[in-house]
């Protein structure tokens, strides 16, 4: 017992020593340590320092750099802030893009950032596939030629099958140092790529296989230490956090205030809430927060909330292959019965605004795309009389105060949601309760996890389920959620085809052609695909037609539009972006690059 | 047969027993590996869609999400289930658990090794601490069972035994990490300290372990104290205790007789608990962001990382099988009745 007591005493002394040293680590310096979290991934200390690895220890905007950073523009996906690329020129049809690199950009080991680095980065991106770097020459928006003009200029040409997203996809290219990553590309890589893109027959197929065969090697590559062109460079990482120190060679080093950045890891939202309540974080990106927790976060000294546009909406989607949801009258009836304001108040009071209508687009983007046309859409205000009329038009019958199927059989609305999404579960419960009040037998069914939910949804097992829509700013991405793969339209090798409901992931099961009133009979999937290469004027017209179809046919009921709710703490740093700033969805590292975030003076 | 001869271990029998245990253990590992191989591949769900939608929800653009998903799930196992099984077993014989899908390019053994480090510290420390505390307090609770101290100790055991581990964890976090922030609750060590045998790093390691260890200790303490109290009460009524008291043996010697006999069944449970520690403690690891095996297993299931799931299940199985063998051998060593192969 005496020995045990001695051990316990020693442990207590060591702990007390550690407690005493909490605030005085070896990194306390003038610029301070900026503490944040990475909203896009959890830290994995075993992963390599490699941006091609999806869980790699590379943090966008800190030690991970792209050619440029996307602005949060509601309708134009080609709006970008300069990063490694200081400027760019693009031909009107986006056939050719010329990129000029920052003249003073250097890697953290002092080597200059050159066009060769960009070329190698593009080569590595080809091994991973992707829109701009697809090996299939017929793929829309694939790059056809990469030319180094000089040490700081590079020209990229788009293939014959043009996409209006080409510039955007190019500028998103992550740039890595050729002197570190270049060895991953074999000597004959570029000739193999040429053969894969322009050749034919077995030789071209072999070339494609060789390039895609490099993918695993590229992902698994683990440089011994970080070489970054960003404002910070990784010092060390453990399962609880990553520590980055300032890169003295960063091209705009004077704009960077903190000496170090600490990126904390988390296993769930609750941990982020605790960090925020205790005032540990200088910034946390969008995190879903219940009202009670929000109040406690705001009580923390220096705590502030910055809100902005988030191009995502939550919707309740129908499987139109299942009765009675194949009937637009039934879908419209449900839209007239759901009080979206109440649903939002219960499910996402801080992170959402009730959808003004169902158009498939976030209200802010919808206004920009549709102008006055937005107000002409049916807002689907709660109207039980209209709902009853729609249900009768669908042949549904009211018996003993309960709505039943046209043949008199009971109508049971089962709303499916993943159990792990508390906001969706709350919303589904609110909706089911509202429907029950209006004589519709509705229940909520939860799936154990999101993976299972999406698997069963794709297999067509659900009648009604929750679904994210309105993924802007690209109009193609917005409507692809309603009239894309989930609804039977598939793009393969530059060709569009429609598959039967219940097959190949077509769980929405809508008709291929719909009667769009004044717009005539329309194939919405074909129109959506055209958004990829249409001119801005044509895009506007197509978006108008598709929004009207979404509003009249109601393949989904738009419930709420997300609000990007960022948390900042001004106790240690100031000059955070204001509400609705175009940089809001980017990391703090990018804010620093743009000249924001300054040390608070004592 | 004299007592001395009866007490001496018969090494041939022990070796035969150990050999038998090992063979049974290997068969058990093979059976579990086979069952888990089949079960994890039958788990419903679409991991590719799940990953893509999760990334979108985290604010990634559809293009970025599509790229990241394609990279992650470009290496899903192919071939028939039978072919995959043969490949899996072949690799297993070479101690190759494969590569992780959710941490691409990284060996499963590396991930398990890394997670095991962070599981062993809080769970082992918590298990041993709760055992020592529970056993000691259990003896006192039994001896003083008619007094207030005994009642209070037994009540504390019953209360803590009934409170779920996550409630204790959340409560301690709320008090000591949020309301009165004197202890850290996120991660196993402060990243600002240079890893190594330096006071800052070791101190931070201990500081971060306090809340998980205390949570685990409090959550397990109730079970130990109640079991020990019940065992001691049972032993107190045995004839040899009465005889010892009648013979006027000192209290300390009687206490030793008592404790030694009462603790025997608990050693088996302790050995099994130590074997179970390779399963980690999911709630504690989740609450305190302790990246141990429990969290690794949960994440591997969510992302349907077959290789990692199989590897983690296997490590847990081996831990339990080995613990069973050790418990059995330990019992042989510490209980003369078992060693002699019959009643004492």
Automatic annotation (TrEMBL), chain A:
Q: Supply the PANTHER family for this chain.
A: PERIPLASMIC BINDING COMPONENT OF ABC TRANSPORTER, PERIPLASMIC OLIGOPEPTIDE-BINDING PROTEIN-RELATED
Q: What is this protein called?
A: Peptide ABC transporter substrate-binding protein
Q: List the keywords (alphabetical).
A: Signal, Transport
Question: Which segment of the chain is annotated as a signal peptide?
Answer: 1-18
Please verify whether the record's keywords include Transport.
yes
SUPFAM superfamilies reported in the protein's UniProt record: Periplasmic binding protein-like II (SSF53850)
The similarity comment for this entry is: Belongs to the bacterial solute-binding protein 5 family.
Q: Where in the cell is it found?
A: Cell envelope
Organism from which the protein derives: Microbispora corallina
Entry keyword Hydrolase: no
Automatic annotation (TrEMBL), chain B:
ABC transmembrane type-1 domain residues = 116-331
Do you know which PROSITE patterns this protein is assigned to? ABC_TM1
What membrane topology term does the record carry?
A: Multi-pass membrane protein
Subcellular location(s) per record = Cell membrane; Membrane
Question: What Pfam families does the annotation carry?
Answer: BPD_transp_1
Q: Which UniProt keywords apply?
A: Membrane, Transmembrane, Transmembrane helix, Transport
InterPro entries for this protein? MetI-like, MetI-like_sf
In its keyword annotation, does this UniProt entry include Cell inner membrane?
no
Bilayer-crossing residues are 21-40, 120-143, 163-183, 263-284, 306-331
Similarity annotation: Belongs to the binding-protein-dependent transport system permease family.
- Please give the name of this protein: Peptide ABC transporter permease
Species classification: Bacteria, Bacillati, Actinomycetota, Actinomycetes, Streptosporangiales
């Amino acid at each position: 017992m005496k020995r045990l007591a001695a051990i316990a005493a020693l442990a207590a002394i060591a702990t007390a020593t550690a407690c005493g040293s909490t605030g005085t680590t070896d990194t306390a310096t003038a610029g301070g340590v900026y503490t944040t979290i990475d909203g896009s991934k959890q830290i994995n200390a075993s992963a390599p320092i490699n941006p091609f690895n999806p869980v790699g220890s590379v943090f966008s905007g800190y030690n991970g750099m792209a050619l440029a950073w996307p602005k949060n523009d509601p309708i134009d996906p080609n709006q970008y802030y300069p990063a490694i690329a200081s400027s760019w020129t693009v031909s009107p049809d986006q056939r050719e893009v010329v990129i000029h690199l920052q003249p003073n950009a250097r890697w953290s080991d002092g080597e200059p950032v050159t066009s060769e680095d960009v070329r190698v980065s593009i080569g590595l991106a080809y091994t991973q596939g992707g829109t701009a770097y697809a090996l299939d020459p017929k793929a829309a928006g694939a790059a056809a030629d990469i030319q180094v003009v000089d040490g700081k200029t590079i020209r990229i040409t788009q293939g014959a099958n043009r996409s209006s997203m080409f510039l955007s996809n190019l500028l998103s290219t992550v740039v890595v140092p050729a002197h570190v990553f270049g060895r991953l590309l074999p000597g004959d890589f570029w000739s193999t790529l040429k053969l894969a893109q322009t050749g034919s027959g077995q030789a071209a197929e072999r070339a494609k296989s060789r390039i895609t065969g490099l993918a695993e090697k590229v992902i698994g590559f683990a440089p011994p230490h970080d070489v970054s062109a960003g404002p910070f460079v990784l010092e060390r990482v453990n399962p609880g956090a990553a520590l980055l120190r300032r890169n003295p060679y960063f091209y705009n080093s004077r704009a960077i205030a903190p000496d170090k950045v600490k990126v904390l890891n988390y296993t769930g939202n609750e941990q982020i809430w605790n960090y925020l309540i205790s005032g540990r974080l200088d910034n946390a990106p969008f995190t879903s927060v219940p009202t009670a927790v929000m109040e406690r976060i705001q009580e923390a000294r220096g705590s502030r909330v910055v809100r902005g546009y988030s191009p995502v909406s939550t919707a309740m989607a129908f499987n139109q292959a299942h009765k009675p949801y194949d009937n637009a009258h039934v879908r419209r009836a449900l839209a007239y019965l759901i009080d979206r304001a109440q649903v939002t108040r219960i499910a996402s009071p801080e992170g959402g605004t009730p959808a003004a209508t169902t158009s498939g687009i976030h209200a802010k983007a919808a206004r920009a795309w549709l102008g006055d046309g937005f107000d002409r859409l049916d807002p689907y205000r709660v109207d039980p009389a209209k709902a009853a009329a729609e249900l009768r038009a669908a042949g549904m019958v009211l018996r003993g105060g309960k709505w039943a199927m046209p043949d008199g059989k009971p109508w049971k609305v089962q709303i499916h949601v993943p159990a792990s999404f508390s906001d969706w579960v709350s919303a589904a419960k609110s909706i089911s309760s509202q429907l029950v009040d209006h004589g519709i037998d509705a229940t909520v069914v939860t799936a154990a996890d999101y993976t299972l939910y999406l698997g069963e949804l794709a297999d067509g097992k659900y009648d009604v389920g929750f679904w994210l829509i309105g993924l802007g700013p690209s109009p193609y991405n917005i409507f692809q959620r309603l009239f894309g793969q989930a609804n039977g339209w598939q793009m393969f090798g530059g060709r569009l085809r429609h598959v039967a409901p219940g097959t190949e992931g077509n769980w929405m099961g809508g008709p291929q052609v719909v009667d769009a009133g004044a717009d005539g009979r329309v194939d919405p999937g074909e129109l959506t695909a055209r958004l990829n290469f249409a001119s801005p004027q044509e895009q506007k017209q197509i978006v108008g037609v598709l929004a009207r179809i979404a509003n009249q046919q109601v393949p989904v009921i738009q419930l709420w539009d997300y609000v990007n709710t960022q948390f900042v703490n001004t106790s240690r740093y100031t000059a955070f972006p204001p509400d609705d700033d175009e940089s809001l969805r980017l990391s703090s590292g990018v804010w620093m690059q743009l000249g924001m975030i300054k040390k608070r003076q004592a | 047969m004299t007592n001395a001869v009866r007490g001496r271990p018969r090494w041939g029998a022990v070796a035969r027993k150990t050999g038998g245990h090992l063979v049974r253990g290997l068969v058990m590992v093979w059976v579990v590996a086979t069952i888990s191989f089949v079960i994890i591949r039958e788990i419903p769900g679409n991991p590719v869609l799940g990953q893509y939608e999760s990334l979108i929800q985290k604010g990634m653009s559809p293009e970025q999400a599509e790229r990241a998903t394609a990279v992650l799930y470009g290496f899903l196992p192919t071939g028939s289930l039978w072919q995959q099984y043969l490949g899996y077993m072949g690799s297993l014989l070479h101690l190759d658990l494969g590569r992780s899908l959710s941490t691409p390019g990284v060996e499963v053994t590396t991930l398990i090794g890394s997670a095991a480090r962070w599981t062993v510290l809080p769970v082992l420390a918590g298990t041993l601490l709760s055992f020592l505390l529970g056993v000691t307090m259990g003896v006192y609770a039994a001896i003083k069972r008619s007094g207030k101290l005994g009642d209070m100790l037994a009540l504390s055991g019953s209360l803590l035994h009934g409170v779920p581990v996550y409630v204790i964890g959340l409560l301690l976090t709320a008090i000591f990490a949020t309301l009165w922030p004197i202890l850290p609750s996120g991660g196993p060590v402060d990243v600002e300290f240079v890893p190594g045998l330096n006071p800052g790093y070791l101190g931070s390691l201990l500081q971060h372990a306090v809340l998980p260890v205390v949570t685990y200790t409090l959550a397990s303490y109730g079970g130990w104290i109640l079991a020990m109290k019940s065992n001691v009460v049972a032993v107190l009524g045995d004839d040899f205790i009465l005889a010892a008291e009648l013979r006027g043996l000192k209290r300390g010697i009687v206490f030793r007789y008592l404790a030694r006999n009462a603790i025997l069944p608990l050693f088996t449970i302790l050995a099994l608990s130590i074997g179970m520690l390779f399963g980690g403690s999911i709630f504690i690891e989740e609450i305190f962001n302790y990246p141990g095996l429990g969290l690794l297993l949960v994440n591997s299931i969510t992302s349907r990382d077959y290789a990692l799931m199989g590897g983690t299940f296997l490590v847990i199985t081996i831990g339990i099988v080995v613990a069973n063998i050790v418990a059995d051998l330990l019992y042989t060593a510490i209980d003369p009745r078992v060693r002699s192969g019959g009643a004492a």
